[in-house]
Write a structure and sequence with these properties.
Glutathione S-transferase Yfyf (Class Pi), Chain A, domain 2; six-stranded antiparallel β-sheet; 24% strand; 10 helices; binds adenosine-5'-triphosphate; globular; DNA replication; 2 domains; alpha/beta; six-stranded mixed β-sheet; 39% helix
Length: 367
């Protein structure tokens, strides 16, 4: 299978990172260093440059304190051709370019990276909104149309909420028609995608050594068939609350392990296994959809103390065409290692003569 390959990553004014260009080879690149060195920030920058996505809501958090703008750039190979993806960040602004031409976020390749993090346990133990965000982010990458319809749906919900709060009950039939159309499409797409996602996640969960079966189901707040009637039936409640109380924005992705809700009953370790299974399923689903293996980013493998899960993470990294693995200790099995120190990265094993040109390239911020 083809693979996306990150040739190099450049950053300027990105969080605590010193301006740099790091090159990556095929196979596993290990990045190690002490807490706070910038390892997570490097993966976050790589994910942003590869996908255009960040889950940070205030973009200025990504800009180095004291600076106004930041910039990340990925030189990558995808579908057999080379391209340059750039992301400029400022206060509340994000600008993307591919090969020098401005594009929208949805125009970047959608299956280019998967990021596994210690805080993925939140997928299991966090609120339904965390699981909805996981599902929506994955499905938006699988289908551009899903992403567009979701944006429209969310905008419609907030406009409808404003109309409810403003006492505009007379306008509800128009808002309801829009919601039922958009929401119905979202629900149907979620149902279809969940079948394959569920299969892949339960296979991964078993591969991780869990003896309890993992099942994914969608706890729907309504259905495409009954949405219009459900809205009508709950109109009084909506008017008194001033918000839309039914629809796919209220769905939950329920995870059951051995028949019990994982969020309520799983141990911390079992929960981490489930979260890892979800990420591996994401990796496989994107590869199936785009016929190309994403770059795998694994943050802090050393936070994973369980030997089985740690081995699984490292095997996963070794089994894909390209992975970047960070840790406070050296990730084993890496072809290349960078040492992270106070926002700087230096090849750990190269002789000094080979270090020339690897750091502090002159870059310009232009957003
Ligand atoms: N916008 C910013 N400007 C400057 N520094 C920042 C900014 N955002 C975060 N930092 C700093 O970056 C550092 C965190 O880096 P990061 O989370 O990448 O560390 P890490 O190497 O992954 O550490 P750990 O091993 O603890 O996970 C912190 O010291 C934080 O204060």
């Amino acid at each position: 299978m083809n693979a996306v390959r990150l040739e190099s990553l450049s950053t300027l004014n990105y969080r605590n990172l010193a301006p740099c260009t790091l090159r990556f080879g095929a196979g596993v690149t290990g990045v190690f260093g002490e807490n706070g060195a910038g390892k997570t920030n490097l993966l976050e920058a790589a994910y942003l440059a590869l996908t255009g996505q960040t889950d940070v809501t205030r973009l200025e958090q990504l800009v180095q304190s004291g600076e106004q703008e930041a910039y990340v750039r990925a030189d990558l190979e995808s579908g057999g051709s080379l391209s340059v993806q750039e992301v400029g960040l400022g206060r509340g602004r994000r600008q993307l370019k591919v090969d020098g031409v401005r594009v929208r976020a949805g125009d970047l390749p959608r299956g280019s990276a998967v990021w596994i993090r210690p805080e993925d346990s939140e997928l299991v133990f966090g609120s339904p909104s965390v699981r909805r965000a996981y599902l929506d982010s994955l499905l938006s990458r699988l289908s551009a149309r899903y992403g567009q319809q979701l944006t429209r749906y969310e905008r419609t919900v907030s406009q409808r909420n404003a109309a409810l709060r403003g006492g505009e009950e007379w306008a509800m039939s128009v808002w309801d028609d829009a919601l039922v159309g958009l929401g119905g499409e979202i629900m149907k797409f979620r149902r279809r995608a969940l079948t394959r996602l569920g299969e892949l996640a339960s296979e991964s969960n078993a591969a991780l050594g869990s003896r309890k079966a993992l099942e994914l189901t969608l706890l729907e707040s309504t259905t495409p068939e009954t949405y219009a009637a459900d809205l009508a039936a709950r109109r009084g409640e909506e008017v008194s609350r001033g918000s839309t109380v039914t629809g796919p924005h209220r769905d939950d992705l329920t995870l059951t392990l051995g028949g019990l809700s994982a969020g309520e009953y799983a141990s911390r370790g079992e929960g981490r296994t489930v979260a890892l299974a979800l990420r591996r399923a994401e990796l496989e689903l994107l590869a199936e959809r785009f016929g190309e293996q994403p770059v795998l980013l694994i943050d802090d493998f050393s936070a994973e103390l369980d030997p089985g899960r740690r081995a699984f993470l490292l095997e996963l990294a070794a089994g894909v065409p390209q992975a970047i693995v960070t840790g406070t200790e050296r990730p084993p099995g890496a072809a290349l290692h960078y040492r992270a120190q106070a926002g700087r990265f230096t090849p750990a094993d190269a002789p000094a003569s080979e270090l020339d040109g690897l750091t502090a390239l002159p870059l310009e911020v232009h957003i």
